[in-house]
């Protein structure tokens, strides 16, 4: 059976240090306990978002990234273009363009799913429907959207 190729967006890494929603933190920890079953990917965007964190948190996040060794995807014209389509077609508002970029990285790099705790713009029915429609129209495969607990 083919190993799933998962894009792990920044929210998942952050939930390893969540102090208020302990059930999501526990689910995230369980997800990372099983990552040897998957091929993990992040993007330059994830690294940029980590870089903007306060110093202590930033170092904790980098340590987790080093521990799990995801492949790092680079920005390219295809990612930027598809993210623009997602914004124009109403998948996410322009001010949340980073969310469109995370989805575009997953699509353009032909990954199986995006794993996220972003339930406002990424892991939700409307986003799944719109992205599926756009991806089919633009000649990309259909991707899946999941929270860490759905993956495991």
CATH classification class: Alpha Beta
Give the assembly state of these chains. single chain
Question: Total number of helical segments?
Answer: 8
Strand order of the largest sheet: 3-2-1-4-5
Distance between the termini: 16 Å
Percentage of residues in helical conformation: 40-55%
Structural features, described:
- This protein has 152 residues and is an alpha/beta fold.
- It has one domain: Rossmann fold, CATH 3.40.50.1010.
- It has helices spanning 10-14, 22-33, 44-51, 55-68, 77-88, 97-108, 125-138, 148-151, and strands at residues 5-8, 39-43, 71-73, 113-115, 144-146.
- The chain has a five-stranded parallel sheet.
- The chain is globular.
Short recap of the structure:
This protein has 152 residues and is an alpha/beta fold. It is built from eight helices and five strands, in the order βααβααβααβαβα.
List the keywords.
single chain, globular, alpha/beta, 12% strand, 152 residues, Rossmann fold
Topology overview:
Layout (H helix, E strand, L loop, with lengths): L4 E4 L1 H5 L7 H12 L5 E5 H8 L3 H14 L2 E3 L3 H12 L8 H12 L4 E3 L9 H14 L5 E3 L1 H4 L1
Parallel strand pairs: 1-2, 1-4, 2-3, 4-5
Helix pairs in contact: 5-6
């Amino acid at each position: 059976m083919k190993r799933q190729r998962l894009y792990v967006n920044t929210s998942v890494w952050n939930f390893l240090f969540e102090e208020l929603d302990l059930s999501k933190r526990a689910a995230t920890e369980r997800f990372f306990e099983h990552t040897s079953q998957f091929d993990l990917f992040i993007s330059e965007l994830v690294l940029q978002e980590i870089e903007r964190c306060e110093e202590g948190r930033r170092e904790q996040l980098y340590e987790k990234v080093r521990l799990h060794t995801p492949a790092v995807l680079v920005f390219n014209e295809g990612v930027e273009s598809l993210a623009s389509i997602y914004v124009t077609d109403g998948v996410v508002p322009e001010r949340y363009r980073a969310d469109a970029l995370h989805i575009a990285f997953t699509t353009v790099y032909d990954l199986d799913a995006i794993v996220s705790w972003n339930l406002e713009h990424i892991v939700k029915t409307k986003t799944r429907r719109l992205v599926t429609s756009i991806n089919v129209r633009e000649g990309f495969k259909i991707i899946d959207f999941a929270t860490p607990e759905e993956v495991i």
